[in-house]
């Protein structure tokens, strides 16, 4: 059975993290998830929430109204977009007078939010639409020699009463999906803590300290890689890893993969196909581990 | 710092309680769960969500709205999930930020992102090189963007009107 979704790329993925998009599209196609491009797009609204909640509601509702015209549900790669679109759908479906007000802003461009579209993050689609069994059956090269840690981040989990996905205090979805590739998923301290990305630009020092703390905890359990599902978390851990090492005199060398890259490897795709060349931290060691080459 | 009676706006807490997200402000009994569970507070001695909430309850309007630490919240929503009183701490902080932003007190990064969204529809300016690289990598073109329609949709929003004026001034 195949499912069809509108793919909602967001801003951060096309701006800086195309490895996530490339690997996601490849993996989803193999698992019979059909993707249709958004006919028109604007920022989900989340970056404006701190300065103008109303603007966030309008931008999100605009995207949802555009999606409604296609009759398809949304799949996002970014948990920030997923969280925002979910929250706004719930808020405007509950508060009719607020919905009227927001729709007033959309009227000029002939749009109207009805609240009929469901938004899912890719992790949710992999778990709910594809399922662990189908993923296990798709494996060509189970990653049984690999030991990794996961980082789900914040916006796919919290606030609990708005998102309603997984258990925010002890999330299991990404762990199960990692274990489905044959890899071992390690527990570590403060797994559900924030990566720090939202504080970049306000206080880079605080932001990098948050990421450093996470990387220390991941290093302490000797994970061979860190697996993320968010473009912002990925930037904090991969793009900024070297910067953190220099700033705090640390050594990590921990590769940071998008979950679809990990899954793709297990499905027999090559690191080239999965855009490993766009990652900052050297991944050659884990590619050897996967091939079964003992590097000690 | 001592509090002066003249600083206190006794209506402020009621004003906040009427804004979406601030409804439960009055329930806070200062237990401190928000601060003790806050990942930012672990690394910043200045940032204390409990203090911000107390300042809001006391009516220290100017002081809380001009506080630099207001902008340190990472919006991870841990405080909101764990508050035993259901205060939605992160949303109260967002309400305070929105009020500060309407008065023009907002870190540069938010001004930049607002300008970018009004100009391009995206929160970041995506370089031409990236767009060409998409083609080379076999990715589909980015969806259509209509910045003029976005500006029309955001018309009348107080913060946006203020931001637009500032952008115009900057361009002249």
Short characterization:
With 296 residues, chain A is of the alpha/beta class. Chain A has helices spanning 12-16, 18-30, 53-70, 79-94, 96-106, 122-130, 132-137, 160-163, 173-179, 204-220, 231-239, 241-248, 259-266, 284-290; strands at 3-8, 33-37, 73-76, 119-121, 147-151, 184-185, 225-228, 256-258.
Reading off the top of the CATH hierarchy, the class of the largest domain in chain A is best stated as: Alpha Beta
Percent strand of chain B equals under 5%
Radius of gyration of chain A: 19 Å
Please provide the count of β strands of chain B: 0
CATH topology of the largest domain in chain A: Rossmann fold
**Span of the ends, CA to CA of chain B:** 42 Å
Mean pLDDT of chain B: 96
Strand order of the largest sheet of chain A: 2-1-3-4
Helix count, DSSP H or I runs of 4 or more residues of chain B? 10
Q: Largest chain interface and its two residue counts?
A: A-B, 61 and 60 residues
Order of helices and strands of chain A: EHHEHEHHEHHEHHEHEHHEHH
Class derived from helix and strand content of chain B: mainly alpha
**Low-pLDDT segments, ≥5 res of chain A:** none
- Total number of strands of chain A: 8
Distance between the termini of chain A: 44 Å
The outline of chain B comes out as: globular
Count of discrete structural domains of chain B: 2
């Amino acid at each position: 059975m195949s499912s069809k979704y509108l793919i909602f790329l967001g801003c951060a993925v096309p701006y800086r993290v195309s490895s996530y998009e490339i690997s996601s599209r490849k993996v989803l196609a193999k698992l019979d998830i059909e993707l249709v491009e958004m006919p028109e797009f604007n920022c989900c609204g989340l970056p404006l929430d701190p300065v103008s909640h109303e603007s966030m509601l309008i931008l999100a509702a605009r995207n949802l109204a555009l999606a409604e015209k296609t009759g398809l549900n949304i799949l996002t790669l970014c948990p920030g977009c997923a969280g925002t679109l979910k929250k706004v759908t719930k808020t405007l479906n509950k508060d009719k007078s607020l919905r009227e007000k927001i729709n007033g802003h959309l009227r000029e461009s002939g749009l109207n939010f009805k609240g009929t579209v469901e938004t899912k993050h890719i992790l949710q689609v992999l778990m709910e639409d594809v399922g662990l069994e189908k993923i296990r059956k798709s494996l060509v090269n189970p990653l049984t020699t690999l030991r990794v840690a996961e980082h789900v981040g914040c916006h796919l989990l919290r606030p609990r009463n708005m998102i309603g996905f997984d258990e925010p205090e002890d999330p299991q979805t990404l762990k199960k999906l990692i274990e489905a590739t044959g890899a071992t998923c390690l527990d570590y301290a403060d797994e559900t803590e924030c990566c720090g990305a939202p504080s970049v630009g306000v206080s880079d020092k605080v932001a990098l300290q948050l990421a450093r703390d996470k990387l220390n905890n991941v290093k302490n359990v000797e994970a061979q890689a860190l697996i993320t599902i968010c473009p912002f978390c990925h930037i904090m851990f991969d793009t900024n890893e070297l910067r953190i090492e220099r700033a705090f005199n640390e050594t990590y060398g921990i590769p940071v993969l998008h979950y679809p890259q990990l899954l793709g490897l297990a499905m027999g795709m090559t690191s080239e196909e999965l855009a490993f060349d766009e990652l900052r931290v050297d991944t050659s060691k884990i590619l050897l581990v996967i091939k079964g080459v003992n590097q000690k | 710092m001592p509090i002066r009676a003249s600083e206190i706006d006794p209506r402020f807490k009621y004003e906040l309680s009427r804004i979406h997200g601030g409804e439960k402000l009055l329930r806070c009994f200062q237990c401190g769960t928000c601060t003790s569970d806050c990942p930012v507070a672990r690394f910043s001695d200045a940032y204390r969500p409990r203090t911000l909430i107390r300042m809001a309850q006391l009516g220290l309007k100017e002081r809380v709205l001009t506080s630099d630490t207001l902008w340190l919240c990472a919006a991870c929503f841990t405080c909101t999930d764990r508050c035993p009183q259901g205060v939605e701490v992160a949303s109260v902080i967002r309400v305070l930020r929105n009020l500060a932003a309407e008065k023009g007190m907002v870190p540069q990064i938010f001004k930049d992102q607002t300008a970018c969204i009004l100009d391009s529809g995206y929160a970041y300016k995506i370089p031409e090189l990236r767009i060409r690289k998409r083609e080379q990598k076999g990715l589909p073109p980015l969806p259509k963007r209509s910045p003029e329609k976005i500006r029309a949709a955001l018309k009348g929003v107080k913060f946006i009107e203020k931001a637009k004026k500032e952008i115009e001034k900057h361009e002249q």
